[in-house]
Design a protein that fits this description.
The complex is a heterodimer of chains A (513) and B (292).
Chain A lengths: L11 E2 L3 E2 L30 E2 L2 H7 L7 E4 L9 H11 L5 E5 L9 H7 L2 E6 L5 H7 L7 E3 L2 H9 L7 E6 L1 E3 L4 E2 L14 H6 L2 E6 L2 E2 L15 E4 L6 H4 L10 H16 L8 E4 L3 H17 L3 E8 L1 H8 L3 E9 L2 H9 L3 E3 L2 H5 L13 E4 L3 E3 L4 E2 L15 H7 L2 E5 L3 E2 L2 E2 L1 E2 L14 E4 L2 E4 L4 H9 L7 H12 L11 E6 L5 E6 L4
Parallel strand pairs in A: 3-13, 4-5, 4-8, 5-6, 6-7, 7-27, 8-11, 9-12, 11-13, 14-15, 14-18, 15-16, 16-17, 18-21, 19-24, 21-25
Antiparallel strand pairs in A: 1-2, 9-10, 19-20, 22-23, 25-26, 27-28
Chain B lengths: L5 E6 L3 H6 L7 E5 L9 H14 L6 E5 L7 H9 L6 E4 L5 H14 L8 E6 L2 H5 L1 H5 L5 E6 L1 H8 L11 H14 L2 E4 L8 H14 L3 E4 L4 H9 L3 H20 L4 E3 L2 E3 L1 H16 L9
Parallel strand pairs in B: 1-2, 1-8, 2-3, 3-4, 4-5, 5-6, 6-7, 7-8
Antiparallel strand pairs in B: 9-10
Helix pairs in contact in B: 2-3, 3-4, 9-10, 11-12
The chains are: A alpha/beta (513), B alpha/beta (292).
């Protein structure tokens, strides 16, 4: 069937059920109660500390076909997914579903678990590396469900993603299950993406290499939800956790794009006292923060909050008084960890609070401006951040669609030419974020405003920004690089791209070669 | 009047930068075959720059190519390969005297296609000898349109200590500006080499403007906007120039000889400075009225 933005999607998917087509960013309303997990109890004197993962697997007990969940705060330094699944394989378990908020190259052993039938289903918000490639080539019979960060929280709360056991990588934990991310060798700061898992999973296991004295404070994941605590030698590699993307780019083209994007933010009229802002780490995104910061200093502007993945750069802005608060669902470097631990205005929140569209209001709804990237964008402003030009999965929405939907001003920054490929096309290979939620595209060769935002176009024109129609930018890119041949893919659906409201915005087809 | 507030070097052996050279809105791009390119890559860079001139849209930027020094065999090869591709100008490095310009002009004339827009020349003055000959260089050929200053080589030639403040190059800068003005060509200042020091760049550019330079060489795209900010006429300058021009018109109408603006006497050189400011402002779109 065809959804509201013209994408061909399957009507039914085995293991997922009936597919609801995407109908518009705010067209689908919820009509279900929240899921209630099993009520738990703990007798006085009963210990939660287990001697190892095998003991926990037996005690729960973990059975074939269960759903095991993981958070991705350790990024490419995570050791817990591999440890837990190695245990599952050793115990001969089959047919497990892995619900990990993101998958990174470090999770390559998962491919072997696919082959052996230990893991037969995957539910995630982002994946890159060998697992993503294996999925693209058809390693799993069931399509992977790709969600947004807010959509995952929604799916868990609404009972569409039922978690049997949540394994929570815990930088610090006490013996009774209180967990935080601010201390220990793998300190990663906020544990926001693990909040829904801890709240709704039937069983919760904290896996730590840093056992602290009871009671551990501050508490990010509370003892009231944690059933077992396991101490292992090492739960992750700090080098992979601190991703090192917090330096401003030196690439002159990206700096030019960032400078222009900051001028767009200024011209929109939103950059005034109370301004709220989200931007990614690395590339042009962080550089936008750099230029926005200069404007805030020059204008004596104090923002209300910075949101999202938090870097040292945003921490510095908080400490300079340029923002009143930081709302942190994920930290990217040790400065973010330090600040979260020390500064009461740096607040840790869960994925639902951050971006779940089906609660009484998530933070992205209060966002003035978000700066986002794109792998591809089409002339209807639909953005692809899932597949590369060869059709291979190399990412996912993460918070992309959520922040785009919530913010008053959504700016996509991208090089008009990536390598030798134009970034703008008639139709993106995989629609991730719908064009109706994207307001402006900023490239090094001009700025395109979504025709839905005539008001904004007038403001940007008045500020002298180099405006062009998106079709004109596309022709400009094609005049330089030519028109790329469409990539040939197989018919089989290897992943469903679920929009934040649970409807399906696109399907990813198998890479065949 | 050609505006040359910023002239941005683009390495001639970097395809990505050659392709993107136009996006930084510098008044001129200088596609560099000389210092940016290692000896073994000279041939490849020459081909790449020729192809870039033929295929890349540099928007409103003047297209300049810095060729190799005239005392090397590479210079003639550069001119033969580049001139037919239609650059606006060639920047000649390490110019020592009028003969260098004359020799280059002859090679350029021989390389031009019939009907091609004449390729201009710019001379980079970066040796004590070149500075001593600066006026002769500036006046050597009608193709010569600008003198640019290269302070790093120049101070090395002097044995001077190079500082950020630039006391050691003050005399050279003034001599170069004078030589250029005497010959009626533009004077372009030496690049500011600390690309991370934006305040230093603004200070150095402000000094250059004060001394009479029309623009500045830039070695990083990040420098372009800051340099423009200095060379753009300020609102105060534009306001003053408008008052001067208005006063002089009124005086002409009334047949009066002496005019004062803001309590200061206005004579011919002041009027011509005011007119230049208004012309520049109009070309830069900073003043609608003058654009009529």
């Amino acid at each position: 069937m065809i959804n509201a933005i013209g994408r061909e999607i399957p009507a039914h998917v085995e293991g997922y059920g009936k597919v609801t087509p995407f109908a518009g960013a705010f067209a689908t309303e919820p009509d279900m109660p929240r899921r209630a997990p099993a009520v738990k109890w703990a007798r006085p004197g009963a210990a939660k500390l287990a001697t190892g993962l095998e003991e926990v697997f037996r005690a729960i007990p973990v059975r074939d076909g269960m759903t095991l969940s993981f958070h991705h705060h350790f990024r490419n330094g995570d050791g817990v997914v591999n440890l837990v699944l190695a245990t599952a394989a050793k115990l001969g378990l089959k047919d497990l579903k892995v619900a990990a908020s993101s998958i990174f190259p470090v999770h390559a052993p998962l491919v072997e678990h696919f082959k052996a039938g230990v893991v037969t289903a995957l539910d995630t918000n982002y994946m890159s590396g060998p697992v993503a490639e294996a999925v693209s080539r058809g390693a799993l019979a069931k399509p992977v469900i790709l969600r947004t960060h807010g959509g995952r929280a929604r799916a868990i709360e609404c009972g569409q993603l039922k978690i049997d056991v949540a394994f929570i990588a815990a930088p610090s934990a006490d013996e009774y299950g209180n967990v935080n991310g601010i201390a220990g060798p793998t300190a990663c700061g906020s544990l926001g993406y693990a909040y829904p898992d801890a709240e709704y999973a039937d069983k919760v296991v904290a896996v730590t290499d840093n056992l602290a004295a009871y009671p551990l404070t501050p508490v990010s994941i509370p003892q009231t939800r944690v059933d077992y605590v396991v101490k292992v030698d090492k739960i992750g590699d700090p080098k992979g956790i601190v991703s090192g993307t917090t330096r401003i780019t030196k690439d002159p083209v990206q700096l030019k794009i960032a400078d222009t994007a900051a001028k767009v933010v200024q011209a929109s009229g939103l950059l005034k006292n109370g301004f709220s802002f989200q931007t990614g780490a690395g590339g042009a995104s962080l550089a936008v923060a750099h230029f926005v910061r200069q404007m805030m200093v020059a204008g004596g502007i104090t923002g209300s909050f910075a949101l999202g993945g938090i870097t040292g750069y945003l921490v510095a802005m908080l400490e300079e008084g340029l923002f009143e608060k930081i709302i942190d669902v994920q930290g990217f470097d040790l400065e973010a960890v330090r600040s979260l631990a020390a500064n009461p205005n740096h607040v840790e929140v869960g994925a639902g609070f951050y971006a779940n569209p089906f609660n009484s209001g998530c933070v992205v709804n209060m966002l003035d401006c978000v700066i986002l990237g794109a792998t591809e964008i089409d002339t209807a402003f639909n953005v692809n951040v899932v597949t590369g030009s060869d059709g291979m999965i190399m990412g996912g929405s993460g918070g992309h669609s959520d922040a785009a939907a919530g913010a008053k001003l959504t700016v996509v920054v991208a090089n008009l030419l990536r390598g030798r490929l134009p970034i703008i096309m008639d139709k993106v290979l995989t629609a991730t974020t719908p064009g109706e939620t994207v307001d402006v595209l900023v490239t090094e060769r001009g700025v395109a405003v979504n025709p839905r935002r005539g008001d904004l176009k007038e403001k940007l024109a008045a500020a002298g920004l180099p405006l062009k129609e998106i079709g004109e930018l596309k022709r400009l890119a094609e005049a330089i690089a030519g028109v790329p041949q469409p990539v040939k893919l197989g018919d089989r659906t290897v992943a469903l791209v679920e929009y934040r409201d649970g409807t399906v915005i696109d399907a990813v087809r198998q890479v065949v070669r | 009047m050609t505006i040359r507030r910023s002239m941005l070097f683009i390495p001639g052996n970097n395809p990505g930068m050659l392709q993107n050279g136009g996006v930084f809105c510098a008044d001129a791009v200088i596609l560099d075959l000389e210092d940016a390119v290692a000896p073994l890559e000279k041939d490849a860079a020459r081909l790449l720059v020729a192809a870039a001139l033929a295929s890349v849209d540099y928007g409103g930027s003047e297209k300049v190519v810095r060729i190799n020094p005239l005392d090397t065999a590479m210079a003639a090869d550069d001119i033969r390969a580049i001139v037919p591709c239609g650059p606006d100008a060639l920047l000649l490095p390490k110019v020592q005297g009028a003969k260098d310009v004359e020799a280059a002009a002859a090679l350029v004339a021989a390389a031009e296609r019939p009907g091609q827009k004449p390729v201009k020349l710019m001379a980079l003055i970066e040796t004590p000898r070149g500075l001593a000959e600066a006026y002769a260089v500036a006046a050597a050929d009608e193709r010569l349109t600008a003198l640019a200053f290269g302070a790093e080589d120049y101070t090395a030639g002097l044995g001077a200590i190079r500082t950020k403040e630039g006391t050691e190059i003050l005399a050279a800068r003034s001599l170069l500006v004078n030589a250029a003005a005497a010959a009626g060509v533009d004077a372009i200042d030496t690049p500011f080499t600390d690309t991370n020091d934006e305040e230093g760049l603004t200070r150095d550019t402000t000094l250059a403007k004060q001394l009479g330079f029309r623009g500045k060489l830039c070695i990083n795209p990040r420098q372009v906007d800051a340099v423009h900010a200095v060379f753009d006429p300020s609102a105060a300058e534009i306001g003053w120039a408008e008052r001067v021009v208005r006063a002089i018109r009124r005086a002409e109408e009334q047949g009066s000889g002496v005019v004062a603006v803001d309590g200061k006497m206005v004579d011919a050189p002041i009027v011509s400075r005011a007119e230049r400011i208004l012309q520049l402002a109009a070309l830069l779109g900073l003043r609608e009225e003058a654009g009529r």
